[in-house]
Amino acid sequence: MTVGFELGGRSFDSRLIMGTGGFRNLELMAEAVTASGAELATVAMRRVDPAARGSILEVLEGAGCEVLPNTAGCFTARDAVTTARLGREALGTDWVKLEVIGDDRTLLPDPAELLEAAETLVADGFTVLPYTSDDPVLARRLEDAGCAAVMPLGSPIGSGMGINNLYNLRLIVEAAGVPVILDAGIGTASDATLAMEMGCDGVLLASAVSRAEDPAAMAHAMRLAVEAGYEARRAGRIPKRLLARASSPEAGVPELT
Amino acid sequence: MTVGFELGGRSFDSRLIMGTGGFRNLELMAEAVTASGAELATVAMRRVDPAARGSILEVLEGAGCEVLPNTAGCFTARDAVTTARLGREALGTDWVKLEVIGDDRTLLPDPAELLEAAETLVADGFTVLPYTSDDPVLARRLEDAGCAAVMPLGSPIGSGMGINNLYNLRLIVEAAGVPVILDAGIGTASDATLAMEMGCDGVLLASAVSRAEDPAAMAHAMRLAVEAGYEARRAGRIPKRLLARASSPEAGVPELT
Amino acid sequence: MTVGFELGGRSFDSRLIMGTGGFRNLELMAEAVTASGAELATVAMRRVDPAARGSILEVLEGAGCEVLPNTAGCFTARDAVTTARLGREALGTDWVKLEVIGDDRTLLPDPAELLEAAETLVADGFTVLPYTSDDPVLARRLEDAGCAAVMPLGSPIGSGMGINNLYNLRLIVEAAGVPVILDAGIGTASDATLAMEMGCDGVLLASAVSRAEDPAAMAHAMRLAVEAGYEARRAGRIPKRLLARASSPEAGVPELT
Amino acid sequence: MTVGFELGGRSFDSRLIMGTGGFRNLELMAEAVTASGAELATVAMRRVDPAARGSILEVLEGAGCEVLPNTAGCFTARDAVTTARLGREALGTDWVKLEVIGDDRTLLPDPAELLEAAETLVADGFTVLPYTSDDPVLARRLEDAGCAAVMPLGSPIGSGMGINNLYNLRLIVEAAGVPVILDAGIGTASDATLAMEMGCDGVLLASAVSRAEDPAAMAHAMRLAVEAGYEARRAGRIPKRLLARASSPEAGVPELT
Amino acid sequence: MTAVRINGEARDLPAGATLDEAVREAGAPQGGRGVAVAVDGEVVPRGDWSGTPLREGQRVEVLHAVQGG
Amino acid sequence: MTAVRINGEARDLPAGATLDEAVREAGAPQGGRGVAVAVDGEVVPRGDWSGTPLREGQRVEVLHAVQGG
Amino acid sequence: MTAVRINGEARDLPAGATLDEAVREAGAPQGGRGVAVAVDGEVVPRGDWSGTPLREGQRVEVLHAVQGG
Amino acid sequence: MTAVRINGEARDLPAGATLDEAVREAGAPQGGRGVAVAVDGEVVPRGDWSGTPLREGQRVEVLHAVQGG
Question: Could you tell me if the ipTM is greater than 0.90?
Answer without folding.
Answer: yes
